[in-house]
Amino acid sequence: MQRIEHIYINGQFVTPHGEEWFDLFNPSTEEVIGKVRLGDEVDAERAIAAAKAAFPAWSRTSREERVAVLRRMHKAIAAREDELMEAIVLEYGAPLSRGRWMATYPADVIAQAIDALEAFAFEEEAGTARVILTPVGVAGLITPWNSNAGFICNKLATALSAGCTAVIKPSEMSALQTQVVIEALHEAGLPPGVFNVVNGRGDVVGETIARHTDVAKISFTGSSAVGQHLITAGADTMKRVTLELGGKSPTVVLDDADFTAIMPLVLTAGFLNSGQACIAGTRILVPRERLAEFEAVATAAVAQVKSGDPRNPDTAIGPMVSAKQWERVQGYIRLGAEEGARILAGGEGRPDDLDRGWFVKPTIFTDANNQMRIAREEIFGPVLTLIPYDGEADAIVIANDTRYGLSAVVFGQDLTRCERVARQIDAGRVLINTLSHEPRAPFGGFKHSGMGREMGKWGLGAYLEPKTLLMA
Ligand code: NAD
Predict the structure, then answer these.
(1) Is pLDDT above 90 for 207?
(2) From ligand 1's centre to the CA of 298, what distance in Å?
(3) Ligand 1 centroid to 146 CA: how many Å?
(4) How far, in Å, is the centroid of ligand 1 from the Cα of 254?
(5) CATH 3.40.605.10, domain 2-245+447-469, yes or no
(6) Which protein residue has the closest C-alpha to ligand 1 atom 26?
């Protein structure tokens, strides 16, 4: 049983003023594996004060000084990869292959932030003016549970690159990962106050950060509902916001696609991160005249997808993170059937060989349409919906008929047509016949999937305020 008793303020591990303890679970066994003491408003205020005090000096550091600090962060986080991996599998239930990716990603994103910082133009000419990009101030960084360590490291490395200092409110459900990250960053010897971490509830610590006068910017990854709320909460203090929110991403299968060849990618996109991924391709758009054929190939393929013990190397889908999340996913599976969709694979309940743990059967609905709630709402579990379309134009209409716009995948053999379709999809990222990732490109969403972008120069620019200088 791990007890996480401290938060991190001004370069020190300190006992929170808050006295509430929050249970941490192993979602594979439903057992309590630890407890974290949560900070409260007073702790959030202290952290903000420390970040504010550290800002003048940090904002004046040179590019070289920032790069040197980021390199130390990178080294310290990379050295903790195995520890992070263990925390991620234990408290989040990521299957081994995914867990390894999630354990290496935090160091990788710091390395990418270093690349972006080294190449970034902080000053440029505009006509007769010089434009200087200056750090916005203290940044409030709020992360979700589905990739907590990665989001902390990405947001923090970018904020520091810009010359901002930070207050981090990690997911309260991911305290083991957070602890590994804080210990590593502490070892990296950052100047006191440039980053501060307060475990706590969203509506307490998160809300204090979101409304505080001394916080200039919020970078938030999480649900669209909370993201929308943060815009309102930050309005009084005119917060700059970057929001990375939810998705209901389409996978558009064109009529010349080779179903057998693409099916592993279709299912990987849909079941990504055990279905708990903002970019998961959960709406699969299939040409109506080939729907039966697609269903047959999908049924055979999904039978090979194992949902279970994340430590089993054959497992593709681990447990849902919490009992609440498991109930939510079960509710959507029930709802899909009630709405008239047909269950092609999976269904309610745990996989047959499991009697505990928040495991879900990989589930595929068919005979669905894009107006059903299972096609419109983010389920955040391994539940996919096949939606038939009639012709390319119809596929594009359905793909875009959603409040979200984070990501999309297009599959087909005619690359010219794939690109034509891709260009018409309203999403921050569209992949053609691949699930590859390009960290130097901007990441973020259209519509309710977010506001602003992370990664590369776009991510860095979001922590900067342009100042125009004109001289006689
Ligand atoms: P969530 O919105 O419930 O919580 C995210 C964070 O916000 C947590 O740290 C939480 O404590 C905090 N929070 C909650 N209420 C708050 C408030 N009033 N003020 C300030 N902070 C508050 O999301 P979650 O369940 O942790 O994560 C899942 C969601 O995140 C999904 O919707 C998913 O699509 C989204 N997500 C998006 C991306 C992306 O890059 N677009 C990536 C991962 C996850």
Answers:
(1) yes
(2) 31
(3) 9
(4) 33
(5) yes
(6) 144
Ligand 1: does its nearest atom lie under 6 Å from the Cβ of 353?
A: no
Q: Is the pLDDT of residue 119 over 90?
A: yes
Ligand 1 in contact with 310 (CB < 6 A)? no
Mean pLDDT rounded to a whole number for the chain:
98
- pLDDT confidence band for 248 (50 / 70 / 90): very high
Residue in the block written with tokens 């970057």: 242
Q: 38 pLDDT band (50/70/90 cuts)?
A: very high
**Ligand 1: does its nearest atom lie under 6 Å from the Cβ of 275?**
no
What distance in Å separates the CA atoms of residue 140 and residue 241, rounded to the nearest whole number? 9
Which of the following CATH numbers is that of domain 250-432: 3.40.50.2300, 3.40.309.10, 3.40.50.300, 3.90.180.10? 3.40.309.10
Q: Is the pLDDT of residue 214 over 90?
A: yes
**Pairwise CA distance, residues 363 & 371, whole Å:** 19
3-class SS string, 232-259: HHHHCCCCEEEEECCCCEEEEECCCCCH
Burial per residue of 128-137, b for 16 or more beta-carbon CB atoms within 10 angstroms, e otherwise = eeeeebebbb
Taking 90 as the threshold, does the pLDDT of residue 1 lie above it?
no
The domain segmentation of the chain, as residue ranges, is: 2-245+447-469, 250-432
Q: Confidence band (pLDDT; 50, 70, 90) for 44? A: very high
Per-residue tokens: 327:
């109930």
